[in-house]
Amino acid sequence: xxxxxxxxxxxxxxxxxxxxxxxxxxxxxxxxxxxxxxxxxxxxxxxxxxxxxxxxxxxxxxxxxxxxxxxxxxxxxxxxxxxxxxxxxxxxxxxxxxxxxxxxxxxxxxxxxxxxxxxxxxxxxxxxxxxxxxxxxxxxxxxxxxxxxxxxxxxxxxxxxxxxxxxxxxxxxxxxx
Length: 177
Prior knowledge:
With 177 residues, the protein is α+β, with helices and mostly antiparallel strands. The protein has two domains: 1-69, no CATH class; 73-177, 3-Layer(aba) Sandwich (Rossmann fold), CATH 3.40.50.150. It has six helices and six strands; from the N terminus they run ββαααβααβαββ.
């Protein structure tokens, strides 16, 4: 299936395949020109591209997604928060589970091509608080996030990073009470 992007016709399978490969081979799986290859361009880091590209494991994951394909719906939307805001109005909120992994508060401008401003983080929090359906959210451990989701169930999860400088961060898993 072809889709137009500006003046170019792009095969969607080829585009998906390219995004898949870039995700598996880039630092932290970030699909952005600023992230770079895991292990560095010389592949002399602790982890290399090969550490994230295990064909048999990836094939199995794709097969699971394929089997669930009739239950999945991917929305091609510029504004994911608007999709969440419309779930109740559309009568779908109780039929779906919403998982959000928004851009980090502090490092997002450095990591992602598009990130959130403070107001975007607030809007997402409001949309999730109003949602009548089930949801879960992961975020960086930042004072703004803790403020926005005060009263929610917040679990701090240690996240070891081995690519680049080995260190451990904390990521938050947030769910309604």
